[in-house]
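FYI - complex with magnesium ion, inputs then prediction.
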Amino acid sequence: MSELASYAVSESNSRGRRCHEASPSGRSEFQRDRDRIIHSGAFRRLEYKTQVFVNHEGDLFRTRLTHSIEVAQIARSIARRLNLNEDLAEAISLAHDLGHTPFGHAGQDALNGCMKAYGGFEHNLQSVRVVDMLEARYATFDGLNLCFETREGILKHCSPVHAATMGELGERFLADRRPSLEAQIANLADEIAYNNHDVDDGLRSGLITLEQLSAVPLVNEHLCEVRQAYPEINDRRVVHETVRRMINTLVTDLISQSAANIAAQHLVTLDDVRRAPALIAFSDELNAKQLVLKKFLHTHLYRHYRVMRMSAKAQRIIRDLFGVFMEDPRLLPTQFQTSETQLESSRARVVADYIAGMTDRYAIREHKRIFAVEEDSI
Ligand code: MG
């Protein structure tokens, strides 16, 4: 690794871990964070959680696990080029979706609706809960005891009301400060990854077509280039050649615009980063183009009737499960039945943690086990 910029996060300017631990040997603190994330149970469950398409719809679609790996790859490339901490950008990327419910955004919306009277449900906050509390694997602390900068990067957004309850992690939202550049990179790498893989998965599913996508400039300019250079190749190759060019364009633009933004601020320390405006950014031109793509995906893919049907089913499953556990906590698996589940107010958060931790297929099975009355369903 080339030398880190003075304003990159490093072991020497890190605010460290909540629970003191001896320094790791043979790896950095942020490599240790990444390793803990990869070995967590929540990380393994990402394999069976929906990104857009429910896991059982096809083996080739992205899941939250493959999405997170793609985000990490993109974030590392960008961090390396900007002389920032690659290991931190990777750790944040791998952990950024740990708090997601089953069934993607449909699941999160349904659970948030169920939790309205109990403080709501937000997947960002849940990701922090997972790494701070819910992973119960270590002898001397709850959660993964990650470094402050990794946790800060996981908490992308936070309302002022929640920020006030989040201690040191909430401070920046109240003081109008930015997170590290590594966190900003992971955030935009997420956007690059999902916009591009949703084009790819959308085409593979047949819900959107190349003809429709030719109305989107960011796609069309690369699509024309590929078709002109390789008139003989089949559509599958055309799609991949187009998508890889789109990712390259977005990454390259993000690096050059961010490098210019950083240079203009004359940054010296990590504190300078926190006081500056958000510096990791696309150019205005590319932002505008990306917006057209996002709108296209929203209208033609995320609102496609087949996706909407799956979302409606998913929401019903989440609401049914939440309702039945709230009504009768004795139906919860034994390890979830604690003194907290006796009281309605504290029971809701336990139920939300249980549901949020489910994979798509586990939620479907659990719904069957509780609601189906056939002999073999218990
Ligand atoms: Mg994501």
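The chain has a mean pLDDT of 94. Residues 180 and 273 are 6 Å apart (CA to CA).
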